[in-house]
Amino acid sequence: MRALLVDRSVPGGLRLGEAPDPVPASNQALIRVRATSLNYGEVAFGVENAPEGSVLGWDAAGVVERAAADGSGPAVGTPVVTLGEQGAWAELRAVDTDWIGTAPEGADLGAISTVPVAGASALRALHRIGPILGRRVLVTGASGGVGRYAVQLARLGGAWVVASTGDPDAHGDGLRAQGAHEVVAAPREVGDPVDGVVDMVAGRQLVEAYAKLARGGTLVSVGHAAGEEETFPYGAFFGDQEGRYDRSIVTFYLIACTGLAPDLTWLAERVAAGDLDPQISWRGGWDRAAEALDTLLGRRLHGKAVLDIT
């Protein structure tokens, strides 16, 4: 099969080449990949650290080529959205059926490919906060892929949504169109306390966001874009901060989540129906992978980048 192989001797660190076809385990389906969406983490750290010749990639959408031998998962010919720790940047992919969601017939598989990491991370982070109907939710790093899904999903869930982005002038109108009630440049600018935070930035912004939590509030630490340490001032964890106690910070790891297949299916249906906008900012054939990686790593991409597997 053809695949994007790690080759750090070429621009972008990837080249199109030949790789062995994957051999599915009994609980895996073989997927003919039609599109893959890129995530900052896999691009920034995966390509740099993976062995030469590796086939990386977390998100992919396509069609079932061979159903799982154990009878689980969708049938041959079903359009699907898939998540895995590697293997998405190839024509064929073997995936655990627990990480396969079905997509509606005729759906744009490029749009559907944005769902796994960005959509599922946002959905599970909001679930971790708890019921959000009528509550205030802050999303930091809101102009990124996960952030944009989190804003939309929080609004669908009935929350009052505060979006934090480094450039409100550039992204404010778009975030409001996606459902944000307020747009701020940093968590410290938030007025009233919030009941939950989906944090994509970490570092100083995580510290600021925690200080805005209301009594019983939860901050879910999903992303770490800042690349800096979190240093809390003395007293930040005292039991009574103007009545805002019993607050928590929880870590997040999507791959450890169970029961993702129904989530992926639900998200794919919402994207196909137009209830969720995948916010694709860059799209092209996988022969243009170096261009896509350069745009993503240069922080010039706000939203998702999609490679069509042709």
Automatic annotation (TrEMBL):
Domain Enoyl reductase (ER): 9-307
Top-rank taxon: Bacteria
Pfam families registered for this protein in UniProt: ADH_N, ADH_zinc_N_2
Protein name listed in UniProt: Zinc-binding dehydrogenase
Organism in which the protein naturally occurs: Actinomadura alba
